[in-house]
Amino acid sequence: MRQPAIVPELCVTDCAASLRFWCGLCGFQVAYDRPEEGFACIERDGSRIMLDQLPGDRPQRWEVAPTERPFGRHVNFEIAVLSLDPILDALAEAGWSLFMPPETKTYRVGDVAVSVRQFLVQDPDGYLLRFSEALAGP
Fold first, then answer.
1. Domains of the chain, earliest start first
2. Which of 18, 27, 70, 95 is most buried as measured by Cβ atoms within 10 A of its Cβ?
């Protein structure tokens, strides 16, 4: 498998809770982890994300502002998946609220139209995730 060219590393307050969300509900798998450091690299369908637990009362080495929920303000992570339905089913079964319900949207990409089915959900720390499934035709 080709390594992703960019892999976001998200600071999280509780790595175990984040893994329950990302892996348990959203279908990611742990590629590798360092539980003793509160770190895990997860992947699904070619997307990869690193989760790094904040050190509590110690300063975070790369923290640029005070840590307040929701994390990742003004950014959403689009995650392309083969099918939205398993994720939507797992989130519904867990009673997890969606930020935006599923919609079908067509975007212009250069000279072509690309259609996707997508929805948005927030993880335990408030990161906004936009899962998208490519649809055939515009």
1. 9-56+74-135 (3.10.180.10)
2. 18
Phi, psi of 94, deg, nearest 5: -85, -5
DSSP 10: E
On the question of pLDDT at 29 being above 60, the answer is yes
Q: What is the DSSP string of 42-84?
A: EEETTEEEEEEE--TTSPPTT--S---SSSSTT-EEEEE-S-S
pTM of the model: 0.88
User: How long is the chain?
Assistant: 138
Residue 88 CA to residue 101 CA, distance in Å, equals: 10
- Whether 58 shows a pLDDT value over 80: the answer reads no
HSE value, Cβ hemisphere, 13 Å, CA-based, for 123: 31
What does the DSSP 8-state code read for residue 3?
P
